[in-house]
């Protein structure tokens, strides 16, 4: 077969244009023998067929804007177009709460805390009282629940 077929299939597999596909000179014979998509995949895996790195012409303005935003500028109320939910603030809350609830579930499962304590701590987690799992565990310890140092570390990284 021709190298054009290999180039076309590689372009489809790598989601690039045919002009961005390169074949190493040493592997042209292998590229001509490639008939199936699997043959081309093996050539891509071995590095004989590859795609050039995509060009990204960033304007200097956008680069400066990104740097300013990293510093916290240009993020005030007047710049915001979407709701807090649309801007991704709730994702952090959900991730944090799910982790804390996993800790509570583990403590309840191994009977370190009883059902009443579980409900009380669950309500505090839901209300957003704890910033981290460590602060939750500190609060649980302060309320008379004994945790070994090893168990504490295990729960903190759950």
List keywords for this structure.
elongated; Non-ribosomal Peptide Synthetase Peptidyl Carrier Protein, Chain A; mainly alpha; 158 residues; 57% helix; 50s Ribosomal Protein L19e, Chain O, domain 1; two-stranded antiparallel ribbon
Description:
The protein is mainly alpha-helical and 158 residues long. The chain folds into 2 domains: 3-51, 50s Ribosomal Protein L19e, Chain O, domain 1; 89-156, Non-ribosomal Peptide Synthetase Peptidyl Carrier Protein, Chain A (Orthogonal Bundle), CATH 1.10.1200. It contains 8 helices and 2 strands, in the order αβααβααααα. The chain has a two-stranded antiparallel sheet. Helix 1 (3-14) packs across helix 3 (37-46) and helix 5 (89-109) runs antiparallel to helix 6. The mean pLDDT is 92.
Topology at a glance:
Layout: H1 3-14, E1 21-23, H2 28-33, H3 37-46, E2 49-51, H4 60-70, H5 89-109, H6 115-126, H7 133-142, H8 149-156
Antiparallel strand pairs: 1-2
Helix pairs in contact: 1-3, 5-6
The CATH architecture of the largest domain comes to Orthogonal Bundle
Report how far apart the termini are.
Answer: 54 Å
Radius of gyration: 28 Å
Order of strands side by side in the largest beta sheet? Answer: 1-2
Q: Provide the low-confidence segments as ranges.
A: none
What is the H/E string?
Answer: HEHHEHHHHH
Number of helices: 8
Q: Report the count of strand segments.
A: 2
The biggest sheet amounts to: 2 strands, antiparallel
CATH topology of the largest domain: Non-ribosomal Peptide Synthetase Peptidyl Carrier Protein, Chain A
* Strand percentage: under 5%
Class from helix and strand fractions: mainly alpha
How many domains would you count in the coordinates?
A: 2
Instruction: State the CATH class of the largest domain.
Output: Mainly Alpha
């Amino acid at each position: 077969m021709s190298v054009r077929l290999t180039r076309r299939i590689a372009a489809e597999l790598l989601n690039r244009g045919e002009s961005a596909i390169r074949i190493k000179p040493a592997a042209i014979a292998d590229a001509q023998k490639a008939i199936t998509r699997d043959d081309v995949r093996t050539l891509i895996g071995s590095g004989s067929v590859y795609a050039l790195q995509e060009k990204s012409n960033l304007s200097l303005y956008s680069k400066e804007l990104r740097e300013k935003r990293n510093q916290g500028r240009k993020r005030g109320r007047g710049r915001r177009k979407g709701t807090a939910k649309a801007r991704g603030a709730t994702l952090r809350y959900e991730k944090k709460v799910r982790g804390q609830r996993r800790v509570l579930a583990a403590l309840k499962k191994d009977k370190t805390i009883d059902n009443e304590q579980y409900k009380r701590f669950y309500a505090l987690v839901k209300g957003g009282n704890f910033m981290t799992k460590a602060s939750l565990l500190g609060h649980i310890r302060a309320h008379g629940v004994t945790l070994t140092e090893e168990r504490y570390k295990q729960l903190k990284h759950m």
